[in-house]
């Protein structure tokens, strides 16, 4: 029996799915339910299910990034979406991230059953029940016509990195921004995000953060009313000495020399 996690913030829908679907006939069993994305991810990490059926429009949750986190960390998990959100571009991106079926509420019973049949068939054709946390370095066979595991992992990883970089740009001048803050924002471990950043950008977290802070400092140095120490503080540096050394390392100039050439 394939193990299933159901995630939806509407409790009646969870109860209905749990009671109404012919789980035994589908070769599945419900291993757990969650009422929001964050607890759903925690449940997925603890239970390591084979299949996840989830909504993606839940409070305080970026559904696409949640899906990317699942497929990046657990590429063998099969996922389908059950949502009231009718947006073609959103659905297309979800499918690019490895979603098997994008179902709209209210969904018919035969649509739900078909989604589970497809997901269980994919799992059967993979031919193994290895730990689902296995990474992209251990690809498994993929049914014809579907995304390969490597393609899914690559798309999910790219989505997570873009989300992480966007968050870093928005918060790079905060002096205490840490890798854990960004990892929490994209729903993966800091170790996993560090690996993704290196793979996608060729740089580590602190190199990326430092470059972003220098770019912000350059903009501020264009304002002659701002003193160097004020720029350093506003760009997220603890002291002007550290700022000046890092600025020269990145640009080849001191902040004062850079400003003089503007």
Describe the model.
By secondary structure, this protein is α/β, with parallel strands linked by helices. It has 2 domains: 2-144, Rossmann fold; 207-260, Arc Repressor Mutant, subunit A (Orthogonal Bundle), CATH 1.10.10.60. 56% of the residues lie in helices and 10% in strands. It has a 5-stranded parallel sheet, with helices on both faces. The model is unreliable at 130-145 (pLDDT under 50).
Contiguous helical run count: 13
The CATH architecture of the largest domain is 3-Layer(aba) Sandwich
Largest sheet entry: 5 strands, parallel
Relative helix content: 55-70%
Superfamily (CATH H level) name of the largest domain:
Response regulator
Morphology = elongated
Radius of gyration: 23 Å
**Distance N to C terminus:** 67 Å
User: Strand arrangement, largest sheet?
Assistant: 2-1-3-4-5
Instruction: Give the strand tally.
Output: 5
Give the strand content.
5-15%
Class per helix and strand makeup = alpha/beta
Work out the oligomeric state of the chains in this entry: single chain
**What's the rounded overall pLDDT mean?**
90
Q: How many domains make up the 3D coordinates?
A: 2
Low-confidence stretches: 130-145
CATH domain class name of the largest domain: Alpha Beta
């Amino acid at each position: 029996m394939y193990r299933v996690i159901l995630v939806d913030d509407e409790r009646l829908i969870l109860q209905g799915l749990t009671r109404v679907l012919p789980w035994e006939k589908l070769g599945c069993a419900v291993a757990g339910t969650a009422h929001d994305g964050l607890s759903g991810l925690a449940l997925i990490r603890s239970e390591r299910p084979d299949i996840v059926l989830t909504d993606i429009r839940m409070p305080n949750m970026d559904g696409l990034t949640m899906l990317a986190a699942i497929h990046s960390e657990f590429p063998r998990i099969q996922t389908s979406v059950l949502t009231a959100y009718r947006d073609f571009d959103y659905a297309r991106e979800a499918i690019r991230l490895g979603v098997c079926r994008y179902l709209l509420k209210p969904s018919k019973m035969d649509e739900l059953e078909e989604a589970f049949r497809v997901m269980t068939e994919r799992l059967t054709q993979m031919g193994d029940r290895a730990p689902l946390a296995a990474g992209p370095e251990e690809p498994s066979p993929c049914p014809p016509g579907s995304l390969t595991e490597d393609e899914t992992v690559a798309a999910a990883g790219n989505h997570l990195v873009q989300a992480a970089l966007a968050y870093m740009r928005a918060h790079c001048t905060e002096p205490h921004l840490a890798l854990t803050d960004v990892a929490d924002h994209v729903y993966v471990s800091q170790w996993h995000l560090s690996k993704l950043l290196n793979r996608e950008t060729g740089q580590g977290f602190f190199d990326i953060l430092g470059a972003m802070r220098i770019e912000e400092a350059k903009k501020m140095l264009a304002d002659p009313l701002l003193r160097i120490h004020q720029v350093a503080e506003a760009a997220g540096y603890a002291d002007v000495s550290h700022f000046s050394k890092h600025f020269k390392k990145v640009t080849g100039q001191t902040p004062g020399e850079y400003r003089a050439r503007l």
